[in-house]
Amino acid sequence: MTDTVITNNVLNRYLFEDLSVRGEMVQLDEAYQQIIASKEYPVALQKLLGELLVSTTLLTATLKFEGSITIQLQGDGPVSLAVINGDHDQKIRGVARWEGDIADNATLHEMMGKGYLVITIEPRKGERYQGVVGLEGENLTQVIENYFANSEQLKTRLWIRTGELNGKAHAAGMLIQIMPDGTGSAEDFEHLEQLTNTVKDEELFGLEAQELLYRLYNQDKVRLFEPQPVVFHCGCSRERSGAAIITVNRTEINDILAEEGSVSLHCDYCGTTYSFNESEVEELFINAQSGDKTVH
Ligand SMILES: [Zn+2]
């Protein structure tokens, strides 16, 4: 164990060695707050983004390779899209789009209408995988559990909580999954399920992994691995925006410049706008032609 104790914005993995069940817990405050601060999200949508965020971090932790996972909710309700993207380094970002008023206690189905969940797994090397499931279940936890039942066929349970602790927004969750080697039993899994069901919001938001695991499972042997920090990080940059501009037809770009005086790219994930005036655009195209990709 490291000397520095990180109780938040951290992912912990553990193993019930004698029961052939693996576990994960994620606790987020700042990383979650940064995502919901980028727009004036309705309360219910803030919670939904928190749940998606927890699901994404728990899922990326199951990745056995370098890459990213994107979990998207799409629907025809007041919320048309809610998306969180995370990678093996636990760098996460997210955004949602909605229209009109949404009640504070709106359910998943009231927000999304007729919708579905899209999970995209993109390994850094290799093929992209996409799974689509309907919104079966009352809430996101049940929808994700259904996804696991259909795709991984490994007994998996999730607990996701969002709320406040000391006046600050928190999102946290736990996952248990039977090991794929077939040595785990249904009884042992159920035993751990029952114990995990007793977890309280304030314990999940505020306790260190070691203490929480002891409180919940003190009769069972748990091996806790090194914690991994979770950070809000958007991969967008001025350089990438410039690279996108030069892929557009020059005449089209000139029309935009004539009309608006500059070409602007807005990043939906973090809210940053990258603006290029006429001479900056000129420079982009000249550099592209000369093969020099550097953008100053
Ligand atoms: Zn961005």
Automatic annotation (TrEMBL):
Processing after translation: Under oxidizing conditions two disulfide bonds are formed involving the reactive cysteines. Under reducing conditions zinc is bound to the reactive cysteines and the protein is inactive.
GO BP terms in the entry: protein refolding
Question: Is tRNA-binding one of the keywords UniProt gives this record?
Answer: no
Q: Which gene encodes it?
A: hslO
Q: Where does it mainly reside? A: cytoplasm
> What is the disulfide pattern of this chain?
C234-C236, C267-C270
Which GO terms fall under molecular function for this chain's record?
Answer: protein folding chaperone; unfolded protein binding
Q: Which residues form a coiled coil?
A: none
GO CC entries: cytoplasm
Do the record's keywords include GTP-binding?
Answer: no
Q: What does this protein do?
A: Redox regulated molecular chaperone. Protects both thermally unfolding and oxidatively damaged proteins from irreversible aggregation. Plays an important role in the bacterial defense system toward oxidative stress.
List localization entries: Cytoplasm
Family matches, as InterPro entries: Heat_shock_Hsp33, Heat_shock_Hsp33_C, Heat_shock_Hsp33_N, Hsp33_helix_hairpin_bin_dom_sf
Q: According to its UniProt record, which protein family does this protein belong to? A: Belongs to the HSP33 family.
Q: Which organism is it from?
A: Vibrio scophthalmi
Keywords on record: Chaperone, Cytoplasm, Disulfide bond, Redox-active center, Zinc
PANTHER family noted in UniProt: 33 KDA CHAPERONIN
> What name does this protein carry?
33 kDa chaperonin
